[in-house]
Amino acid sequence: MMFRSTLGAGGGSVATRSEPAAPAVADTLDVRTVWISDLHLGTPGCQAQALLDFLRDVECRTLYLVGDVIDGWQLRRSWYWPQPHNDVVQKILRKARKGTRVVFVPGNHDEFARRYVTHSFGGVEVVDDCVHVTADGRRLWVTHGDLFDGVVQCARWLAVTGDVAYEFTLKLNRWFNRLRARLGLPYWSLSRYLKGRVKRAVSYVGDFERAVAHEAKKRGVDGVVCGHIHHAEMRHVDGVLYCNDGDWVESLTALVEHHDGRLAIVDRSATRFAPAVRHAREAALQ
Asked: For residues 246 and 34, is the Cβ–Cβ distance under 8 A?
């Protein structure tokens, strides 16, 4: 496994190390909690097979689905639902039947589910938001995060237009990565690269992180777990632990809690074109 960064409970750096991945080893990741969001099932951009592989490889007590699980916006424009997307849903329901607590926090793309808050479907609890208590006693507020996105809240037409442009970028990205795969090169995200280079996008991400962390601080919790912006991150913002679990369109990331309360971002993008190799890049925070 490779550890991207390691911080202590007080925020100080304690260790950073890198170990080579063991080839062709399909170990199960046994953790206390998993957070995933922005699956965007129902879109061609969803990396459903990679997500299904991850769900098969991980065992947890609680699985949080932190919004944008099903992309209602895209499905209203045109229907797209291949078998791997159905397999992901069935795998999640199977986990619920076998005793995993599954909690669904709707986002803006699956906002239709917000009318079913407090209900349970197939063992999946639907909530607006919630507080998770880690094994070491920290209280983490879990929310999708779209309520702190000014574009979504104040200019929905712009958000929808941006969503169409985003889908186009992902389409280019798929063709580009098919070529890279033939050349034996790893997955590379065009849209993530563009977001990292465009000044306004970088500013947008920073503003979002500060807004969510500020609300978490007002609520008196130790940290927040969210999604929405497709940017996996874990750091302290204004004294609050900010965790974003990323997405399963570009990043292929999840946030996990180990049994002792340590948090880590698990990155499966490195195995996107080599599914026999099971290794993770983690950002652990004790």
From this structure: no
